Amino acid sequence: MKLHLLFSVATLCVITGCSGDSTLHDLLPNARNRATPLSFGVHVTPDPATNPIDPPERFSGYHAAVDYEVSAGELEGDVPVYAICSGKVRFSGYAEGYGGLLVHDCRIEGQRVTVLYGHLDRSNLPKEGKRVRGGQIIALLADANSHNSGHTRKHLHLGIHKGKNLDIRGYVQSETKLEQFIDPETVLPSFT
Q: At 71, phi and psi to the nearest 5?
């Protein structure tokens, strides 16, 4: 009986992609060496004096994610984005401020989370309800200043929200609200 159950679980993993897999994967090629001027928890306003990017963000608050920049050589080419973990797609489409956006659920360090990838080319995003596997290419970064990039620079906004509720905020208005999120650089394999 136990052997039959183990075989069934193994077969299910092969078929579904093992959505319970807790292995974390890199999100971009060479992630460790990318500039991250808008790091987790940094406070910004649209004022250039308090904003580390040029042109400055149009939002105010504490950044609840990390922005991974592209190199000069990647401005014109395709930059693949990989799922950092396995789970079901909860949102796939357009969102104001992000352009192309994908959110899926998974487990990180035994905790349920939703993972948000912003500023994506929407042409081939996985559909809502579909399962993605950690390490799978889920999108390409959107071109700079396009509708898909949210009319901003070419970069990846990666946020990890604790719990199962869908929360697509890129900024929060108090430092205590940052506790609802995980700093990606504290859990991703390139940084741990």
A: -85, 165
Greatest Cα pair distance in the chain = 66
Neighbours of 177 (CB within 10 A): 14
Nearest 5°: the CA angle 83, 84, 86 is 70
- CB 150, CB 99: distance < 8 Å: yes
Q: Is the pTM of this model over 0.85?
A: yes
User: By CB neighbour count within 10 A (0-12 exposed, 13-18 middle, 19+ buried), where does 136 fall?
Assistant: middle
Residue 166: Cβ within 10 Å count: 12
* Both tokens assigned to 150: 């949210």
Q: Would you give per-residue pLDDT tens digits along the chain (192 residues)? A: 333 333 333 333 333 344 445 689 999 998 889 999 999 999 999 998 888 888 888 889 999 999 999 999 999 999 999 999 999 999 999 999 999 999 999 999 999 999 999 999 999 999 999 999 999 999 999 999 999 999 999 999 999 999 999 999 999 999 999 999 999 999 998 776
